[in-house]
Amino acid sequence: MRLLIIDDDTVDRMSIVKTIRAANVSSEIAEAATAKEGLNALMQGAFDAVLLDYRLPDMDCLDALHAINRHIAHHVAVIVLTGGPTEEDLQCRCIEAGAQDFLLKSEVSAQTCRKALLHAKTRQELTLQLLDAQHRLQLLAENDPLTGLANRYCFDNKLAATFERARQRDIRFGVLFIDLDNFKLFNDCYGHSAGDTLLKMVAKRLLNVLHNNELAARLGGDEFAIVAQNISGTQDLMDLSARIIKSMEDPFVIDNIEQIVTCSIGIASYPECAQNAADLCRYADLAMYHVKNTRRNGFYLYSEQLQAKVLYRIGIENALRSKNLVPQLRVFYQPFVHAKTMEICGAEVLVRWQHPSLGLLAPDRFISIAEECGMMGVIDDFTRGASLRQLRTWRDEGRVEQSFQIAINISASTLHDRSFPDAFKNDLESTGRDDLRLSVEVTENIMVADFENAATALTQLRDMGVTIALDDFGTGYSSMSYLRQLPISVLKIDKSFMQHVPESPDDVQLLKSIIALAKSLALEVIVEGVETLAQMQLCQALGADILQGYYFSKPLTVSEFEYMLLREDVITLQKPAR
Q1: What parts of the sequence cross the membrane (predicted)?
Q2: Residue 422 lies in a domain
């Protein structure tokens, strides 16, 4: 045993050493005359036990015990020695302060010394085992077993402590919420074992870019968080985010396969963004959510404007998932006008949403969100069914000719749903008529994900007698291969090409070229976005087949469209109908 005797009385120290030797305790003994000397000795080396005199010239026993517990990294057994009787209360206070035993110097014999030292050593070993178990339990409680990072419990505690310190000292800090992009897809493709490997590799890269004042935690799944303390401003948080984004640039090699992994980061800072931990985390999460739903592989700093935007999106998404969605949907019709006869020859079907609190919403307010949250199938089914029933009614009532055609927009999720052609066929058969003229409008962008399946579905529709129109031509890939490989018979020129026509010669020439291209491929041409008489006349001169736009009419309700069909002079109006 390594023993340290702290006693200012040289004779007492010699007596204690002699007693220890007589007790046949294998030991290495060091001596100190003051508490300060004893503390220095303890800080320089490890001891198994300390024999501490109750009265020292520079510090009393209780203060010495507290100092040992406060400054000594290793745990050491302390036996307090006193020259005379002491109060029981004082002995208890010494035990509570960390002493293992309390002995009178006059009663210390070789036997009692040996017994006290061995008992102290045993108790100390048990204490160390208990401390080690507590440490391991703390690691389990505060650390993520997969990555070794702090877990949510530790993160929450650290954040609470950081908040308290920041308030007291008027310092700034921030929180980063990090989410891996497309992690679920990675897990589905390569399995959970590969996913776990990726998470561990990501954790290592995070640790490599952090500074000492930054804590990294795994909150669960592929979600990570960082607490960055003592920052000078939000720029520090953005710099840290940029370092994290850059650290992900090199491929992750898993099972000899290189994987490109990106992440989305939301940032919130104290005191700019929030005054409590819950709000700070919520705002960082909102900022991350914004990145995930816009560009990914980036970071964003929370602002009140962002909160309003994200909360709007969340509200829209929740309302889209409501069972009341379908009864709130409305179908509008924007007329197609034949360029030569100037007669209404059809209509594009456009959906609107009568939101219970926001009023009538145009497609750009909710369609992209519906696509992302998986609700476009419901909307497409409603739109298709309602418009087919309406066309049948108009035909039954003689309001439109047999040549009248309605065009229905098809979303990506619907087009790539393998049951879609059969559902379309069932809707057609449910009308009880086989002479309805229908067209589906698809954009280039929605076919990129699964071109082969999209081509198969469109071919099946064509075989049912449905016309296929390529919508928004010129805004996407504008690939000639689509025009050749798909069963397309109509090319629809996007309204963006009409914005500067006829004022811009370059735009006029571009429009002319697109129409000529379509004609060379024997495609019918629809030009949308016609808003002036001059634009209408130009499209007629260039050989467009069908015109659509606000010059003729905005999208109309059923009753408005029926009224328009009755008006003989509607197309000859010289002013846009808005």
Answers
A1: none
A2: yes
